[in-house]
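As the work plan foresaw, our protein records have gained a structure token line. A representative record is set out beneath this paragraph:
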Amino acid sequence: MQRYFVSAEQFNEHAVIITGDDARHIGKVMRGKPGDKLIVSDGNSREALVAIESIETGQVTANIVEPLAMDHEARIRVTVAQSLPKGDKMETVIQRCTEIGAVSFVPFLSERTIVQYDAKKEGKRLERWRKIAKEAAEQSHRNRIPSIEQPLSWKGLLSSFEAYHLVCYCYEKENGKQLRDALKPFIEQLAPDASAEVLIVVGPEGGFSEKETMEADQAGAVSVGLGKRILRAETAGMAALTCVLYESGEMGGM
């Protein structure tokens, strides 16, 4: 069943008003008609099964059939920090990791980042990234849309580490500790119903410099490998995120 995110203000006691691109999607793409049912969420605390009452230009009115209490979010809240990759690869990272279950994304600039950062274009790029996250969250029936932060400097990212219970950075030269080695004891010490904040840090196409790995270690992060193969920058975050959620039982693990 098609799912849409709306603001809390678009809900009232008995109905929801869907506007903008979502209204056009319902009317033009889905060819919705009165009586068709949808799932609508405010991305926070309210979700409902609704039935379309009317479709007008730029607006769909739907009556609430019943509130829903489905929770599709993981108890281990994983943020993916990704050094800005070339081209549109960040869009792929956001789309795929949203489907898998990331709760937020932190783009950052590191020593070997190839992309030329242009602050003047950042507004449009963030808008596009957030739209991609919203659509991916709808497609994968998420309860919430992942947040996407303004790109940080490497120093700015390091200073954020203290906000997480576990920080792992993916390092292709790590020959000892693999991601599972860091995850297993961390997850085992959590209470069954406890949540935790985990940060996965992925470097650029050229990897992290030795200076950056030393700084990450000093800031409390754990260097981890992702197996014997070298993954692309846009693949590493997806693989690491999947491992975290599998090991925590979100994908049939444990």
Notes: The chain has seven helices and twelve strands. Residues 3-67 form a domain with the Ribosomal Protein L25; Chain P fold (CATH 2.40.240.20). The longest helix spans residues 122-139.
